[in-house]
Amino acid sequence: MKSNIIDDAPFFGRARFQEAGQVKLCELSSSSVAVVREARSANNGPREFVKVAVQLSGRSLFAQAGREVVLDGAGWTFYDTARPYRVVNLTEVHQFVILVPKAELHLPAAQLDCFGVHDFGQVSAVGRIFPNYINSILAEGARANASEAAGLGEVATNLLRLAIAGAAQERASVSAAQTLEFQVKHYIRTHIADPELSVQTLAEQFGCSKRHLHRAFAGSDISLSDFIWQSRLERCAQALRATAQRHLAVGEIAFAYGFNNFSHFSRAFRERFGCSPSAYRQTNH
Hints:
Blueprint: E1 2-5, E2 13-20, E3 23-30, E4 33-37, H1 39-44, E5 49-57, E6 59-64, E7 67-72, E8 76-80, E9 85-89, E10 93-101, H2 109-115, H3 125-140, H4 146-167, H5 176-190, H6 199-206, H7 210-216, H8 224-241, H9 250-256, H10 262-273, H11 277-283
Helix pairs in contact: 3-4, 8-9
């Protein structure tokens, strides 16, 4: 990725970062600059996200796949981080920049390709609501706990999905199985501290058979059982990185997020992150 300062004035940039579950947010202020991601660097970069830019002030040009859009003081657009793109801040700008996992949008790749680099600011009611919601997350989200933050990120993702589907003048093609998968994943994330959480308890919660739940995850790249364990491990890793939880022993963190066997937790953590929980904590502080 290449960056070039446009005018002779000294460059300045200020960024404030926040995470809401799997959604990554940034409030950015910058002087005039051009950012170009070429084909070679795009192939080496993060491929699983779309990047959303919400213009708060200033003028910016966004270009990808032969399309261009200019946002002047307002509006928002998105583009694919896996493909070459060009972003030119023609003036000093103030923006929200959001990274959203493609897989969580549940939209066809063709639809994302077709409706990237358009101004969504006035397309629909959802398009107008989305920037205000992002502003609310950045204003209040830091006070949310991990489960609440994950929920805020899911709402932002859903608003983005609805806005894109609305621009396509059709509802997103989400089957009953995909809807159930989305609901189950949300339930798991918000109940991950429950040591009894399992495929069996999920089947009881959703009033269906275990087989039905497994079928809902058949089109996913991860099984339901693995999603539960990976969610537990990700939450433990998040806690190990958190300065506010440094006083907690590694075992306390493991038990707090549903593990009831420390040896099993240590083995699973090492397999997932390539080091022991203690080493991971030291590396991230």
